[in-house]
Specification:
148 residues, single chain, 4 helices, binds zinc ion, mainly alpha
Length: 148
């Protein structure tokens, strides 16, 4: 038994929302956290879940809880998010562009009230198509393919 350990669990108020023990101060929660981490490390029963334990403020009861940091993502998820954020949107292929134009034209026919929006979309896509065609033509000219 620790001399200055936390109060017996039965005496502690529990949050109706989180089910966690409510600590009146952040310091009290931190003491409880330290005790919990120590116990978890010693026993090894909870694996390494204690690593993500922290102290947070409960909005409902205005007390402090010891719990798992939900805002901290696992490393693999963090890496995935960063990778996705870094990814440049891929340019559309001519086929995709053509299908998009066709789709937008169909949508314009269906939604007369949004005709202006789709008309603009079509203009943009056609311009992208034009740019693509020009790019392809320029590339073809530059590479000067020999006779086949
Ligand atoms: Zn709570």
């Amino acid at each position: 038994m620790r001399e200055q350990g936390p109060a017996p669990k039965s005496l502690l108020q529990r949050c109706p929302v989180h089910g966690s023990v409510c600590h009146k101060t952040k310091q009290a929660a931190e003491v409880a956290l330290a005790g919990h981490v120590g116990a978890a490390k010693d026993s090894g029963v909870e694996g390494k879940a204690w690593k993500r334990l922290n102290v947070y403020r409960c909005r409902e009861t205005e007390t402090w809880h010891v719990g798992h940091a939900k805002e901290k993502l696992p490393d693999w998820r963090k890496a995935r998010q960063e990778r996705r954020a870094a990814q440049q949107p891929k340019p559309l292929t001519p086929g995709q562009l053509r299908r998009k134009i066709e789709h937008a034209e169909k949508e314009r026919a269906r939604h007369t009230e949004r005709a202006a929006y789709f008309a603009e979309q079509i203009e943009n896509l056609k311009y992208a198509d034009y740019l693509w065609a020009r790019e392809v033509a320029a590339t073809a000219k530059a590479s000067k393919p020999g006779p086949r």
